[in-house]
Design brief:
The chain is an alpha/beta fold. Helix content is about 40%, strand content about 20%.
């Protein structure tokens, strides 16, 4: 049983899914991928039966030769931008299930409408199935011509066991002494809404005196703001995240653009109340308003301030209960369920 992934940038959460697949089967997994992003320099450890190949080392011909040598039973392709990836998909389309993955939502743009109109000559020429994160991508998938039976969900899963175990190990401490610290994990880019968060938190700190802090984990092209209650920790490897999970209480993701956001799943699994902008796709699965957190309108700093004040004004007991609800919602998607989806399709 051989699987070929034609991938973009690797992330640690993807390997948790691949490893679950390897543990459940005797599959042989091959991954062609782009270099690791410098703003998210993950370090990976591979199980046996997994081989990786650097995308920039292959021409169109040598990539096709590699695929033919592997002779996969199924191919997954990240989107449709890489023309040489598409050549491989077209070559195997009639004899092998070809899955395309994307996280974009339907917005009715001219580009999307043209793609949907010419789907017979583009999408359907290369792919038999699509694998999307969740409901926000469903309309786009259908407009691209995929039958619902060929639309797979739950492609993005965090390393659920790691983050859930972090929740279990810190649960008693938080129940007795809930940490008054918000946490943001993401790149320091404009589209992440990081400036909005810093402004909102700073203004709330002045308007409503409190003992809460904001911890920020990440790097990017925006310089860290200086504030006595805002701390910056740079990029943190997932394996080192447990320390920060145990010492913080509420997760915030204020993105202006976030088709999904696996980090939301990570902190739901870790038992955190959630604050997410309405642009965060993963909130559709993991955030239920008033049950385990609060949504707010992206770029609306006053709304963000309002939900921060709600959290600050809540009893610790209520915040802990909201975290428990997050942990319940997080189990909807796991690497094991991801592996079952892939293996079931191969067997079919």
């Amino acid at each position: 049983m051989k699987v070929l992934f034609l991938y973009t940038e690797l992330a640690e959460y993807f390997f948790s899914c691949v490893n679950a697949c390897l543990k459940k089967s005797n599959a042989e997994v091959h991954i062609v991928c782009y270099p690791v992003n410098k703003e998210a320099p993950f370090s990976f450890s591979f199980l046996d039966n997994l081989k990786t190949y650097e995308r920039n080392q292959y021409t169109a011909k040598s990539l096709l030769d590699l695929a033919e040598k592997i002779s996969p039973d199924i191919i997954y392709c990240s989107g449709w931008v890489d023309k040489e990836y598409l050549s491989v998909c077209e070559k195997f389309r009639k004899k092998t299930p070809i899955i395309v993955g994307f996280d974009g939502k339907w917005n009715g743009s001219l580009k999307q409408r043209l793609g949907a109109f010419f789907k017979e000559f583009t999408i359907n020429q290369y792919f038999s199935h699509c694998w999307i994160p969740g409901n926000p991508q469903m309309e786009f998938a259908k407009r691209l011509g995929f039958n619902e039976k060929n639309i797979l969900r739950g492609f993005y899963s965090c390393d659920y066991n790691y983050f859930h175990n972090s929740y279990l190990s810190s649960m008693e401490v938080k129940k007795n002494n809930f940490p008054h610290r918000f946490i943001f994990v993401g790149r320091y880019y404009e589209f992440k809404g990081i400036r909005d968060l810093w402004q909102a938190f700073s203004e709330v700190s002045e308007e409503l005196p409190n003992d809460w802090e904001l911890w920020c984990l990440g790097t990017g092209d925006i310089l860290p703001v200086e504030h006595s209650k805002i701390k910056h920790f740079g990029f943190v490897q997932p394996k080192d995240m447990a320390k920060y999970i145990s010492e913080t209480g509420v997760f915030i993701l204020p993105s202006h653009f976030e088709p999904w956001g696996v980090v939301v799943h990570e902190f739901a699994s870790a038992g955190f109340p959630l604050i997410c902008s309405n642009e965060v796709g993963a909130a559709s699965t993991f955030l239920k308003e008033n049950e385990n957190g609060f949504p707010f309108q992206s770029k609306n700093i006053n709304e963000l301030k309002s939900v921060i004040k709600k959290i600050i004004s809540m009893p610790d007991e209520k915040l802990f209960q909201m975290g428990e609800r997050s942990a319940e919602f997080a189990s909807q998607i796991t690497p094991e369920k991801w592996a079952d989806t892939l293996l079931t399709l191969i067997k079919q």
